[in-house]
């Protein structure tokens, strides 16, 4: 309670946060919220040292943390060095430290040369290492798919996406199954909804979009822009993506744009901008069409449905607004019965699919990592925070 007042400058402090003693913080919320405890597991709820945050702004490079490791050195874009934290409340970790090489170029060669203990495996190398005869095959580990969804967002407050039939047509006009297999090597699965498989409230019975080009043409011809399309006066569309100007457009996006061209006679141009500017622009709803994704940072369906599709959701970057969806999301927020709450979310998810503020693309597939045999205790999870506390060496190990 009081967060909005603090952010808007009408209060100096957040009224609903009170320090009880050295190890206890009390939080008062302005309304019941069934997702609140789950939200406390995310980085946004971490307790920070106020002095370090407000003094000189150096806390990004010298943070005051409470985890099993602390930051020893940091070179942006190149290297992170973590050191064991002897004051960790559950005892120091097994490892003395961790070096994270951020420039992934050549990581496979470094692994083969015993210069690193662990690396991800890219599309180019995976087919070779999956061969049981490959010398690294026994060191290959599968990780479960991340809890994420990738999509092309549509600003539904602007032409031509203010007519849902246009948005639906774009979804029906692409063959995601073929693109996933032929362009992305089967490393992803077509997204048929907002909630990824395995996540709380996942609904395998949703009516998602399949490749139906005839229906796509029927929908767009019946839209308020049908005559404009037939006469060559269809509104210009620009897809904004992150990346350096002149960099190749990802092959899967090229395939999608080509199918729109072939099936609907719609041309879409591509504009690339740097990541920081891209994210800022998405948040400001500057783009009519943009390609991005969303990953769960706490284990509750509200992280997808309420944040992205409530009219007041802080991740609603498409301008989507459906009063009935808002009502149901507000109902789900205070519903304490888990199964009843999930059924409400299922209804909202189907509404969102039908209204089509996105062009759905992918759910992540399985990931792969190479881990040296002497490394044990590393847990491959579906959440984006690595777990190093329990990692240890089963035998003395050195990297060259």
Describe it.
- Helix 6 runs antiparallel to helix 8 and helix 13 (323-334) packs antiparallel against helix 14.
- This protein has 400 residues and is of the alpha+beta class.
- The N and C termini lie far apart (53 Å).
- It is globular.
- It has helices at residues 3-7, 36-39, 50-55, 107-112, 126-129, 164-172, 176-182, 213-221, 226-231, 251-264, 275-283, 305-309, 323-334, 338-355, and strands spanning 17-21, 24-27, 69-75, 79-84, 97-101, 118-120, 140-143, 148-154, 188-190, 237-242, 268-273, 289-295, 358-364, 367-371, 375-376, 392-393.
- The protein folds into three domains: 3-60, no CATH class; 69-126 and 368-393, Periplasmic binding protein-like II (D-Maltodextrin-Binding Protein, domain 2); 148-364, Roll (Dipeptide-binding Protein, domain 3).
- It has a six-stranded mixed β-sheet, with helices on both faces.
- The model has no long low-confidence stretch (mean pLDDT 91).
- It is built from 14 helices and 16 strands.
CATH class bucket of the largest domain: Alpha Beta
Q: Bin the strand percentage.
A: 15-25%
Spatial shape:
globular
The low-confidence runs, each spanning 5 or more residues with pLDDT under 50, are none
| Major sheet | 6 strands, mixed
Whole-angstrom Rg: 24 Å
What letter string, H or E per element, gives the SSE order?
HEEHHEEEHEHEEHHEHHEHEHEHHHEEEE
Mean pLDDT: 91
CATH topology of the largest domain: Dipeptide-binding Protein, domain 3
Output the number of helix runs.
14
Count of domains: 3
Q: Write out the strand line-up for the largest beta sheet, numbering strands in chain order.
A: 9-13-8-12-10-11
Subunit organisation of the chains = single chain
**What's the CATH superfamily of the largest domain, by name?**
Dipeptide-binding Protein, Domain 3
Helix content: 25-40%
Number of strands: 16
